[in-house]
Amino acid sequence: MTLRHMKIFVAVCAESSMTKAAGKLHIAQPAVSIAIKELEEYYGIKLFDRISRRLYLTDMGRNFLEYATHIVALFDDMEKSIRQWEHSGKLRIGASITVGTHLMPQYVNAFYKTHPQSRIDVFIGSSDMIEKKILQNDLDFAVIEGTVHSDRIFCDTYMKDRLAVICSPNDPLCEKEPVKIEQLLSRPLLVRETGSGTRELFDHVLASLEYTYTPAWESTSTEALINAAGQGLGVAVIPYILAQPKLKAGNIVELQVENLRLERGFHIIYHKNKRLTNPAKEFIEMCQNCMVRI
Fold this sequence. Notes:
Blueprint: H1 3-15, H2 18-25, H3 29-43, E1 48-51, E2 54-57, H4 59-88, E3 90-96, H5 97-114, E4 119-125, H6 127-135, E5 141-144, E6 153-167, H7 181-185, E7 189-192, H8 197-208, E8 217-219, H9 222-230, E9 235-239, H10 240-249, E10 253-255, E11 263-271, H11 278-289
């Protein structure tokens, strides 16, 4: 037996008429009669006494009605809940270190203001780690600054950024601007960890110019690199968006390096086979329209 049979039976009981039940359900009256007959034959019981063209529930019919009403109510409740999940369900969002440090808190806070019933779980990690989680369906979508390597992932660039080469105002390179790449590599380099989008871009640009280097510092913390550079421990390569506050304060300075182009973009990524919910689409649209505050 199907849920349709249950719904028809409950409607007939409520209306005490197969004709009225058919009108309520927007189906033909013979279809109602057939459904009731199928129920009685399937369970081997008589649901109604038919007296003077009126329907009267039998004892078995009353017992059956209790179950049928409960089943139909549970299904209706499930449908309502699922529709609510679409608007207030959990979002699993990934963010690379730079995005997670500076942008994601702004995005989530702005989204909660218009979707207070939503729940957002955020995972922050390196770009390659985020990509793996997207492929494993551990995340619904992500915002990263790194390069996507899998052709199974959709990638949309929504904002431009660049890397900044920074150092202490007292660093000897400050007297040599514009700085040559050879001069830059002569200083201790403070860089992000392997696998981060920042490190990948820097390594790729240097390799394309046929330069190699050995890092003095490698860190998952951009703040640690900024502080180390400010203390005169070397030259750091970090996202410009994260360097701005300290640059404005004068704690560090940005070096101009000849022939070193470190432009990049921030990307929204998700699996090409992923069905995005309406809240996910709205969050992505909000990221694309959000004004970043430094």
